[in-house]
Each structure stands twice: as structure tokens, then as C-alpha cells.
Amino acid sequence: MALPLTAPITRSRRVFAEKSSRAILKLVPELRPVSGQRASDRIFYGVIGAILVIGLLGLLGINILLGSDAVKIKNLKLEAVALAEDREAALREIARISDPENLARKAIALGMVENKKTKFILLQPEVTKKVSE
Q1: In which band, very low, low, confident or very high, does the pLDDT at 121 lie, cut at 50, 70 and 90?
Q2: What does the DSSP assignment read for 97-118?
Q3: Looking at beta carbons, which pairs linking 64-70 to residues 24 or more positions away fall under 8 Å?
Q4: Which H or E element spans position 133?
Q5: Measured at the alpha carbon of residue 78, what is the angle toward residues 74 and 83, in degrees to the nearest 5?
Q6: Using CA atoms, how far apart are residues 45 and 39, in angstroms rounded to an integer?
Q7: What is the dihedral of CA 94, 100, 104, 107, to 10 degrees?
Q8: Per-position DSSP letters for 52-87, written without gaps between them
């Protein structure tokens, strides 16, 4: 059963393409609108749109809250820096006032006299015992 070389192959290809395209098209449903299908499409699009709008409003709310928190954090940082500067200034003032030379000068200005005969009291005198040999 040899095929003749002069037989046209194009016809069989065309027939095969038509039959295969019909088979593929039968797998796809008809695209004609069915009653009730439009309503379900509208509901679907409405739900998707509502979800999208709610999501965008949620993102907008989060963005607004983060922005206001950023402003609060910036103000608190500035306040912390100002308090740290005030604390450092107070510590410098305390160090200046409690300097021994300043204290001596203020004591002399108030009429206090320096003690020339300083004596110390031993609260627990050392006791020595002779060890008998």
C-alpha cells in the first residue's frame, strides 16, 4: 500500500485542521449571554470593587496613622535632645559650684576660718598584745 507521490497532501491537512478546530471549539462554552449571568457578573464586579475600595481606604488610614506617629516621634526626639542639654547644663553648674576652690572662697566670704589644728579620733584603737614566748 504505497501512497502515490503525486497525491495532494494539502487536502488532508485542511480536513484535519477543520476537524481539530471543531473539536477544540466544542470544549469552550458558548459566549452568548444567558439570562441571570449578567446579574452575577455585576455582583462579582461589585464585590471586587468594594474589596478594592476598602483595601485602598485601609492603606490610606494606615498611612495617615504612620505619618502622625512620625511627627510625634520627631517632636519627642527634639524634646529628649532639649532635656539632655538642660541636664548637661545643670550638671556643669553643679560641678562649678561644688569645686573645692569655689567652696573655700565662699566659706571665707561668709566669715568661716580654716582649722589649723586638725585632730582625728580613732573609733577603734588598735590593740596590741605581747605574745609570751
Answers
A1: confident
A2: HT-HHHHHHHHHHTT----SS-
A3: none
A4: none
A5: 145
A6: 10
A7: 40
A8: HHHHHHHHHHHHHHHHHHHHHHHHHHHHHHHHHHHH
Evaluate whether 133 touches 127 at the Cβ level (below 8 Å).
Answer: no
pLDDT, one tens digit per residue, over 31-65 is 665 665 555 677 888 899 999 999 999 999 999 99
Q: Residues 6 or more apart from 61 whose CB is under 8 A from it?
A: none
Q: Greatest CA span in the chain, whole angstroms?
A: 144
AA letter at 118? T
Q: Cell numbers at residue 51, please?
A: 474589596
Cell of 121: 579620733
Asked if 96 and 102 count as a contact pair (C-beta separation under 8 A), the reply is yes
Grid cell for residue 129 = 598584745
